[in-house]
Every structure is written in structure tokens, then in C-alpha cells.
Specification:
The protein has 128 residues and is mostly beta strands. It has one domain (30-126): Lipocalin, CATH 2.40.128.280. 15% of the residues lie in helices and 47% in strands. It has 1 helix and 8 strands. It has an 8-stranded antiparallel barrel with strand order 1-2-3-4-5-6-7-8. A hairpin with a 4-residue loop joins strand 5 (86-91) and strand 6. The relative contact order is 0.19.
Length: 128
Amino acid sequence: MVINKKNTLTLIMTTLVIIFLSSCEQKWKEGDLHGSWKLNSWTEINSDVSVGDKMDFTFDSGEDKRYSIDYGSMQEKGKYWIEYDYLVTVEDGSVAKKVKIISMSKDTLEFDMNRAGTLERLVLSRVK
């Protein structure tokens, strides 16, 4: 096999494209999100102050990817999806909101959100 500049360039470009495409793979799987989640803790990251409000989630596994949040006195419903490191929700009749997923396992979901300029961390447990 004769190696020339064209073959070398093609090999380099192919390798770079493969690396780029593999780095774009979703870190978190939507299937791991499906089900009901109960709030364990909600704290302001900088002050470690507990917010203490209710915020329980349900993520449906259907094609339309619906979610609901129970705040106690209020309910929120809409569509959701995962985009790289982020959970994106769009409340019915509203605009998209993103929260950064810190960790997700079959039992625990942890994410950071910016609420009115304050960074907060929520930790949720799957309802069995």
C-alpha cells in the first residue's frame, strides 16, 4: 500500500469526524428520567441555605415527552427533552427552561438551576 498525502489527509479527516461525532453523544438517557421523582433537598449553592419548598416531578415515557411538576399549591405541565448535559422543559404556553444535570442514576436525579440569579441545587429520589 502506497501512502500519499491524499490518503493521509483522508485518514486524518475521517478520524476527526469520528471523534467529533462520538463526543456529541448524549451523556444522559431520557429513559432513565421516566417515572416519578420526589424532592429530597433544594439548596442555594453559594449559601447552602435550604429552600425547602415542594417540587415533585413526573416524566412520562410516551412519544410526546410530557412532564408535570407538583409545587404543592401549583402545578406545571409541558414537554421535556434532554439536550447534552441539560434537561429542557417547556411549560404549556411558555418558553423553554434549562437545568444542568449533575448526576442521574436509577434512584437519584441531581441538577442545578438558576432561579432569579441564584444558583440552586435540587436532589430528587425516584418514587418506587
